[in-house]
Amino acid sequence: MATVAAARGSRSGRLRYVAERRGVLAALLISPAVLFIAALVGVPLVLAIYLSFTNATAGSITGKWVGLANFRRILHDPIFRGSLWHTAEMTLISQAVVVVCAGLIAHALVHKFRGRWLLRFLILLPWAAPISLTVIGFLWFFDPQASIWNWFLVKAHIVSPLNKPNWLGTPHDAMASIIAVQAWRTIPFAVVIFIAGISSIPQEVNDASAIDGATGLRKFWHVSLPLQLPIALVAVLFGIVFTATDMVVPYILTNGGPFNSTQMITTYAFTTGINAGNIGEGAAISLFLLPVLAIVAIGMLFFARRAEVT
Amino acid sequence: MALRRNLFAYGIAVPFAILLAFPFVWMLVTSLKPEAQVYDPTKTWRFHPTLASYGFLFHHTDYVRWIENSCFVGVIVVAITLAVAMPAGYALARLSGRAGRAMGVGIFLTYLVPPTLLFLPLSRLIAQYLHLSDRLWALVVVYPSFTIPFAIWLLMGFFKTIPQELEDAALVDGCSRIGSLVRIVFPISVPGILTVVIFTFSLVINEFVYAITFISSAANRTLPVGVPTDLIRGDLFNWPGIMGAILIPSIPLALVYNAFLNRFIAGFTGGAFR
User: Fold this and answer.
1) Is A166 exposed, middle or buried (0-12, 13-18, 19+ CB in 10 A)?
2) Is there a smaller number of Cβ atoms within 10 Å at the N or the C end of chain A?
3) Stated pTM of the model
């Protein structure tokens, strides 16, 4: 009895000793997370690349290897080529709007003033509310008969009540609507990142520039702006990833229509892979999101290294 | 100086607040209209408000069921996420040097890999190997793929703010490293952990792509998919009810976000900017 207990005691003692070593403990604590991420992100990513070289369908368990056939087909597909262009258009225009608006709002919100809590709450609303739900709201705001935007436009005598815009029914307006909704929902997030960046600028910088007589626009241009470029870059990179890879807004508002004029990489991959059941081809389409990810990842790494140096 | 600064703040913040929040005002107005009047141009702003559509939502649709489903998935995913991300976030916060930093950034980058890239292979894995098609457990299995990297990043930021000396003192007093983690580090990180719980839960409430791919029956849908698919595609096009369905989860989420925003910023930037 006693020897067993002693042996067990020493074994657990040894285990405890091993667990006390920093490297071992760190590996022990991190490995579950690494395993989870490898299984849930790594494996599907590799599988996505594999599937894009097969003719897998929803019905057949194992697709056959078809080489580059999927890529050849989609690159000749005008709808797919359109979707590349639309994704770039939606992402770049909406994020340009976001940076300007969010920069202004963050500067206004960073200092304490009466009513800031309420204003910040109202500005955060689009980000806090579940996006797939609020987009349905926009479906109603863009309704051809009852659009509230049209009500304002008619009251302001900008459009005639007999010839109201059909926001989601015409290619040009549908794209503009999607871009507007993407900007609307990304602005609060960018504001948050900007506030974080502005509040990380030490007070000494403000004091020093005040002593040197820098005020207003000149201070903004020579002091605040250069210091905030890195944080603006982070906000833009996040915005690009979230917008380019987002399916919810275009899927619910137009589902690619009218006439595929708002078809995105994401909606086309869903239509092809899930609705039509061509998983191989759908995977090939969605892989075209990878360059966006690569660019953003390189940007982030660049930023992380700069943060390390300074 | 202060006056000018305040004028600038109001001049920018008030118009933008109106612009960004107006859709919610209009949702509220629509949700209170009698269903027969939503298309009536003479009743745009003047009408007799009614709560009828909220009654419809709770008694004649699966709305409550979707909220329950979302909460069920949310609670389990938050539990899994904390169990995996808390130890990892702590280890990455304390690992000094290049290796720890590179690993932290690497895990963070996996958060950027979007569902729209992974949903097709995952749909096959779910259907053919895990046999979880149309079950909420499919979402429980998949959602940690984005909640864990996100939570690790936030927790890393929070743990970095805890002075190493506190743990050293516990070690000197005879506490083991794991013991100091459980007895010292986690208890003082409760506000940070609560922030992670809230933002992880809201990621789950928001998720759309996986939920619409894996779940096919109305009773098993989560909130973000149930409302757009079953309240719109059904033969009843109840706009006031749909607007109510949007507002009910949005307002509490926004209140909580606002309350925890400063902590979120601290954790989010803590991992990168120090």
Assistant:
1) middle
2) N
3) 0.88
